[in-house]
């Protein structure tokens, strides 16, 4: 039997003030699958994502990564989960704080005890994957926003995760940077969960999509079908760009 890359069963969560956010979320991702997590603001998407490696916890339900349960009380196990599940946050400045690009990319593996040639190899590999090798000695905050987003992806790739979680990866990118990031993400050999309001980007990169609204999964299916359902999108406050036809574009193909 194939073990799921990610399995979320009956996940509930409320914030300390009692505000409920998640109401029994069930979600399974197969190894190598690319899934878009869609939903309006306040749906619980970020709250769900922060549960995947134990940043948030405390509600009913279970989460398993490659068959290993996310248990915040197991510090050694949680460290391994956080290696397996890499989260790239919406604002790259939340992940970049070292003097140079290379030091930022090396930070995570170093914390895992990686040293010497292995560390250098990971840094080189991650920077090459995002097309930032020539910027390794630069100060991260001197880079453009799009370049910083790519370096943020590299900091996670250097950990060699099995699941890559992307929080609004296309936000605040100009069209060229948006396209370049898609070209980086498409060939990565990892399971991807992409949180986005950018529905064409979801269609381009993710064959499957789920819609989360009011803390519940309300739809789960092939991305083209979900985006073609105008009533479904309207019911959950999701909108395609004016004139965009999802039938004219299939997952894995860029808009011409």
Automatic annotation (TrEMBL):
<comment type="similarity">
    <text>Belongs to the ABC transporter superfamily.</text>
</comment>
<dbReference type="InterPro" id="IPR027417">
    <property type="entry name" value="P-loop_NTPase"/>
</dbReference>
<keyword id="KW-0813">Transport</keyword>
<comment type="function">
    <text>Probably part of an ABC transporter complex. Responsible for energy coupling to the transport system.</text>
</comment>
<dbReference type="InterPro" id="IPR003439">
    <property type="entry name" value="ABC_transporter-like_ATP-bd"/>
</dbReference>
<dbReference type="GO" id="GO:0006824">
    <property type="term" value="P:cobalt ion transport"/>
</dbReference>
<comment type="function">
    <text>Part of an ABC transporter complex. Responsible for energy coupling to the transport system.</text>
</comment>
<feature type="domain" description="ABC transporter">
    <location>
        <begin position="6"/>
        <end position="239"/>
    </location>
</feature>
<keyword id="KW-0067">ATP-binding</keyword>
<dbReference type="GO" id="GO:0005524">
    <property type="term" value="F:ATP binding"/>
</dbReference>
<keyword id="KW-0472">Membrane</keyword>
<protein>
    <recommendedName>
        <fullName>ABC transporter ATP-binding protein</fullName>
    </recommendedName>
</protein>
<dbReference type="GO" id="GO:0016887">
    <property type="term" value="F:ATP hydrolysis activity"/>
</dbReference>
<dbReference type="InterPro" id="IPR015856">
    <property type="entry name" value="ABC_transpr_CbiO/EcfA_su"/>
</dbReference>
<dbReference type="GO" id="GO:0042626">
    <property type="term" value="F:ATPase-coupled transmembrane transporter activity"/>
</dbReference>
<dbReference type="InterPro" id="IPR017871">
    <property type="entry name" value="ABC_transporter-like_CS"/>
</dbReference>
<keyword id="KW-0547">Nucleotide-binding</keyword>
<dbReference type="GO" id="GO:0043190">
    <property type="term" value="C:ATP-binding cassette (ABC) transporter complex"/>
</dbReference>
<dbReference type="Pfam" id="PF00005">
    <property type="entry name" value="ABC_tran"/>
</dbReference>
<keyword id="KW-1278">Translocase</keyword>
<keyword id="KW-1003">Cell membrane</keyword>
<dbReference type="InterPro" id="IPR050095">
    <property type="entry name" value="ECF_ABC_transporter_ATP-bd"/>
</dbReference>
<dbReference type="InterPro" id="IPR003593">
    <property type="entry name" value="AAA+_ATPase"/>
</dbReference>
<dbReference type="InterPro" id="IPR005876">
    <property type="entry name" value="Co_trans_ATP-bd"/>
</dbReference>
